[in-house]
Amino acid sequence: MLATKRLTKTFGGLAAVSNLDLELQQGELVGLIGPNGAGKTTVFNLLTGVYTPTEGDIILEGKSVVGLKPYQITARGMARTFQNIRLFNSLSVIENVKVACHWHSRYSLAGALLRLKSCVNGERQMQENALELLEMFNLAEKKDEPANSLPYGEQRRLEIVRALAAKPKLLLLDEPAAGMNPLETKDLMELIKKIRRLFGLTILLIEHDMSLVMGICERIYVLDYGKVIAQGTPEEIKNNKRVIEAYLGEEA
Amino acid sequence: MKHKNILIGILLIALYLAVYAAIGTGLIAPYYQVNLYLMGINIIAAVSLNLIVGFTGQLALGHAGFMAVGAYVSAVLTLKLGQPFLPAILAGAVCAFVIGIIIGLPTLRLTGDYLAIATLGFGEIIRGLLVNIDYVGGAAGINGIPKLTNWTWLYLFTLLTVFSIKNFVNSTHGRACIAIRDNELAAETMGINTTYYKVLAFSIGAFFAGIAGALYAHYFFLIQPATFSFMKSFDALVMVVFGGLGSITGSIIAAMAVTFMNAALINFGSLRMIIYALLLVIIMVFRPQGLMGTKEFTLKHLFRVKEGGSS
Amino acid sequence: MKTYKWLVVSLIMMLAVSLAATGCGKKETSDTIKVGVNYELSGEVAAYGTTAKDAILLAFDEINAAGGVLGKKIEAVVLDNKSDAAEALNVATKLITQEKVVAHLGPATTGATLNVVPVCTEYKVPLITNSATNPDVTVDPQTKETREYVFRTCFIDPPQAVVAAEFAVNQLGKKKMAVYYDNTNDYSKGLYQVFKEQVIALGGEIVAEEGYVKEDQEFRPTLTKFKQSGAELIYIPGYYEKVAKIISQARELGIDVPFLGADGWDSPDLVEVAGPEALNNTFFTNHYSPQDPSEKVQNFVKAYKERYGSIPASFSATAYDAAYLLADAIKRAGSTDTVAITKALAETKDFDGITGKFSFDEQHNPVKEVSIIEMVNGEQTLKTKITPKQ
Amino acid sequence: METFIAQLLNGLSLGSIYALIALGYTMVYGIIQLINFAHGEVLMIGAFAGFYAITKLKLNFFLALIFAMVVSALLGIIIELAAYRPLRNSPRLAALITAIGVSLFLQNGGLVVFGADYVSFPQAVNKVTYKLLGGSVTVTSHQILILIVTIVMMLVLQYIVLKTKTGKAMRAVSFDKDAALLMGINVDSVISITFAIGSALAAVAGVLLGMYYQTIYPLMGTMPGLKAFVAAVLGGIGIIPGAMAGGFLLGIIETFVSGYWSTTYRDVVVFGLLIVILIVKPAGLLGKDTREKV
Prior knowledge:
The complex is a heterotetramer. By secondary structure, chain B is mainly α. Helices cover 74% and strands 0% of the residues of chain B. Chain B starts with a helix and ends with a helix. By secondary structure, chain C is α/β, with parallel strands linked by helices. Chain C folds into two domains: 32-155 and 293-359, Response regulator (Rossmann fold, 3-Layer(aba) Sandwich); 157-286 and 372-386, Response regulator (Rossmann fold, 3-Layer(aba) Sandwich). Chain C has helices at 2-25, 46-65, 85-98, 110-123, 157-171, 186-201, 220-229, 240-252, 268-274, 276-279, 295-308, 314-333, 338-346, and strands at 32-39, 73-80, 103-105, 127-129, 150-152, 176-182, 205-212, 233-236, 259-261, 282-286, 351-353, 356-360, 366-367, 370-376, 379-386. Chains in contact: A-B, A-D, B-C, B-D, C-D.
């Protein structure tokens, strides 16, 4: 599904990520963990095309996506959420979702300007798709509210809905549980399991909350100073010496 | 929904006929007619700039440059090449559109104030080139342009502008532009080609600015490079911000209010601009988000006000 | 709710403004003759518009003090066109259709005037401009017909430039000339074209020509270029403010050839800015000279100086003449009918103005002598007077 | 060669005036990220203050310069207080429109108060012309004075910003207003001081412009203001040496285009070059590319 080969990104001589080799199989749920500043989000930014790698390759479904723009990578079937929520605040909840429908159900510009039938139909289609998704995630009632008026937890959920609306095959979640209480985190775990099942997704997630990572991930990569220091099942990671060092070292 | 559209349609036709009759019978004095035309041209300029600045969030200060392109191209076609008015207007608009793409592609990579100064620069370049082209009269400009802009053309193109841009922002394309304004990075990772949409909004805005310029040229007889200085771009920007960034009805109301203010202040002689400037500062200080904010004024508002009044 | 409160406040504010505005305008009494004064009082060329307006108001006050015209006082309705051609049209429409003025004075620039001409023609109201020098102002370039309602009290471009070229070649004996003109100004470009043609016709040569733009303050780069070209005389058909700086910067660069210019030079500021020394060996063509000993001129200069604190420039003089010319035409027409006034204006014969005795030719341009002024130690002295070939 | 040197000297004088104005622009921009379109008008008021100080108060040149700086500084503080401060937490475009409003107000107020006419500026410093290279290149004492004043002003400004406590506070405020507030910095007064210094610099530029070009008038600030803004952006807005570099570069380019090609294409070339530079270096010549943190 997804593989990176010797992926490297340097900022002014400082390597944020170096020689990273990741591999995700179809349908896997993989966690990416590591102490603060380990380069996790940089990995996401490289994968989604926000940054261009200094070296190395990213292969999505057998084809390299290096050098593509983020929107092109999205069209290849990758979508993401953000660590710091990035919703379109002046748009309503449902419009946020519709923005993500853009790449696959777009209609012509002329249709839009003159409000031709293609536009009306296209809009109806998007509305239906979006509403369906919102209903699935219990957000349908709030569809016309401004996105930034939602409570924090719902904003996070909306971000996931929005990413799903882009019809991804691979979903990247950047700290989905950040700022949530244990109860909300538990709900989130159920939600992630559910979407994976329903949409047949491959998921890569960054998370600090160990209960979540250990609870749902099948495989985990541990990153420190931009390098993979360990990988394996949750059990293996829990007992890995270098991982414990890295985390304790950070705390000390 | 259907009923509302029919109602709006009837209101618009009624407005057209009413003004048409009022001009014909002399009910609207010639002086008010001049301001009526200015109002229409200002509405087109403000609404089209709002698409760029308000909806897409790209601070552009070269709108007058596109008006100049529309004005010059259409004037050359009607005056020097003897073409009819409608193709001349459209040719002017298309030229502005193309130049919008040419200018937009490199500059829209810039953000914020850097974009502002680059677009301002392009406006000045267009003006500087016009001064040096003797075919269009250099600094003296083109004089004796036939007065072809009448109420029907003005009304038609104002409606065309307003409704095209309204349709655009309410479509998936427009939503893409708003998404870029709200959060460019998120928009791009949600599958939106940000460069394409920025350039698209910019050049559609330029297209309608070209129409405004063409209508202007064929009402005021004379166009000169100096007419389209950066002060004219500022005028349009004032209307957009005053009306509310991202509110089409706001831009329309503001364009009308600014034209009205300008006409009302005419009697103050040399104090005219001082009062105008003061009003500008006061309005902005007390209403920084503009008249309408990002909201639209709809028929519902009218009814709500009425209900509120009766209770 | 807050929105509507604010809307109400702003509406009241606007209403107040417009009420105050209409309040100012409505002083309709039948014992005054309303004259529209449409000038550039703000914006880029406010300086020219303001001096013209000042001179016109001075003239009207004098006329009114002497009993007015046809037993009525002249009332000037002064409006600002912001140095914007479209605004000039807006203002003219207001003056003619709302204020019902019997005549229209201004605007100062050719562009704005051309924009006003159709309105005046449509409503058959005479227009007199004091400084729009382009021939097209009074003659339609397409039909070659004289515009019936448009008059001016200044020269058109050609006569001055013809005289200047003759003076440069024949009297000063110069062959190689440079021209430095204002590229953003039709007046300046018009003079430059005619001068160039004439010089070549008289056997001279233009060795360098360059334009500056309105906002320029820095002329050294071009002057340095002129210096290399070997020009024996530099013609600057521009306005005093730039001319003073150009000459001053040129002398600084060691350029000591004579400079020659036109009526735009005429202002006391020329000497103040450039200094008397730099101005030696410079000449310009003009309508009048404030040093003209005639009583009429001296009275005008004195009255203007008392009221506004400065010596009137030639644009003040032509504007002053425009005001008196209009009063004279109303008197001769014996009525305030706009068409009758227009007719009287067209028949003007030997009107004795500040800027000389003149009549209108069939193109509504004043026929008058051109004075050539030489600057000698900061004083304007009359070098010679030449009647241009028509 | 002589022509080249002569043109270079012309360019340096023009450039130092642009640099001086750009310094003020950049300071104000650096601290509140506002394009202060009224800066050119503050310059104009400074020039008139200097004019009245010399002609009415009979002060000598340097006292008049200080007088003008004080007047402009006060004006800058008042403008910030009345027109910009209420808008500090509003959309930036609202503040931009206010700035345009203030600029129009001062311009047209100037037209009414000072009159529309050009006022000739007294030559309070004797102009001496020095001839170099056998007379083919000339330099005046005014040109030298302008160059020296500009460089001194930049050094003083760099010292204030980098070495003094006020300067540290300025940098803190420009970096993060809220954090600065938490650190006990009086943000309001720091912004006022910045406006005062920026406006005082504008006054210096105004008086020097008056002296160099010999006339002042109410609209004198508009074009130099716009050009200086271009210079500031060219060098990287918000960066003091950038404003300096941008100013000199702009002055020299303008001079060379006028001198070797044509004045009428000067602005076309200047703005064209600006756009090319911005496309190659989107944050200006000395600006750092800052990427949004994701």
